[in-house]
From TrEMBL:
InterPro entries: Ergot_Alk_Oxidoreductase, NAD(P)-bd_dom, NAD(P)-bd_dom_sf. It comes from the Bacteria. Residues 13-192 form the NAD(P)-binding domain. This is Uncharacterized protein YbjT (DUF2867 family).
């Protein structure tokens, strides 16, 4: 068993794609964890329906549920904070969660941010992450930041019902990453025998290669047998083609700027932090396609319009 040197670990977003993967990994290592969820019926469970071993469950109605989050963090030395849903008040929601951790006596927080987080980042959500990072640095907590790239699964979700990926990414490249690799990095950081090794450190968590969306489309074409292609929209076309999806202005800008950030070269950096921390190379998009067919099988029967 590999217990966290810091004791009990709170895992937020434990019912989501990343949080649930982390919960299973920590459970496999025998770590004592508290799974923080909105809906207790969605807590990760073993295949036979039994609860994960050494797991407690805490319910909070989002990070803005101050009382719920403080209770969830009570008695927890270490917390893992996954980013909240995209919204106009996302930074305030993130800072509320950090403040709840401080108030509850949490000592160490590992936060999932985004590559290239900066006050002038092209991708609006990367600017939100930058603001959250600054609040975390000022919080007095011991902190580690995991800046991940776009997920491989997200790129597959970009395919529309007409088998076209549309967006103003030009010929830019993106070093997308698998959820599992981010979860493996988080596990390595949270369960390190010397937890102080990662204090004040920011890691870039990316795939091993950067691809253009034309290359992404070609790989999905080979996998699905459908003719998937990339169409480089202008920014104006991108806003127009997404105008009828019922998204807020913040979400819409986030979707479009994820593409323009690719065009600007802000998502092409390939980091080797996965291999350094996990001891094996990160999974490429092509490997992810081979390993996780259920994540893209919907494309075999015709793509669904993704939010991006």
């Amino acid at each position: 068993m590999r217990w966290s040197a810091d004791g009990l670990i709170a895992v937020t977003g434990a019912s989501g794609r990343l949080g649930s993967r982390l919960a299973f990994r920590l459970a496999a290592e025998g770590a004592h964890q508290r799974l923080v969820v909105r809906d207790p019926t969605r807590v990760p469970r073993l295949g036979d329906g039994r609860p994960l071993p050494e797991c407690e469950v805490a319910v909070a109605d989002g990070y803005e549920d101050v009382a719920g989050m403080r209770a969830a963090f009570d008695g927890v030395p270490t917390a893992f904070l996954v980013s909240a849903r995209e919204s106009a008040d996302r930074v305030a929601v993130h800072t509320a969660a950090i403040d709840a951790a401080v108030a509850a006596g949490v000592e160490r927080l590992v936060y999932v941010s985004f590559v290239g987080a900066a006050p002038d980042a092209t991708f609006t959500f990367a600017r939100h992450h930058w603001a959250t990072e600054q609040h975390l640095r000022r919080s007095g907590l011991r902190w580690t930041i995991l800046r991940d790239n776009l997920y491989h699964q997200a790129l597959a979700s970009f395919v529309g019902t007409d088998d076209v990926i549309r967006g103003p990414a030009g010929d830019g490249l993106v070093a997308s990453v698998a959820h599992d690799d981010v979860a493996d990095v988080a596990t390595a950081v949270l369960l390190d025998e010397d937890p102080h090794r990662h204090d004040g450190v920011t890691y870039d968590v990316t795939g091993p290669i950067a691809l253009s969306l034309t290359q992404v489309a070609a790989l999905l074409t080979l996998a699905t047998g459908r003719q998937i292609r990339y169409h480089a929209e202008t920014v104006e076309e991108a806003y127009a083609s997404r105008a009828g999806l019922g998204a807020s202005d913040v979400e819409l800008e986030g979707w479009v700027t994820s593409y323009t950030a690719i065009a600007a070269g802000e998502l092409e950096h390939v980091s080797h932090d996965v291999s350094r921390l996990v001891g094996r190379p990160a999974r490429s998009f092509e490997q992810w396609i081979d390993d996780y067919p259920l994540e893209w099988q919907h494309l075999v029967h015709g793509g669904r319009a993704g939010p991006g």
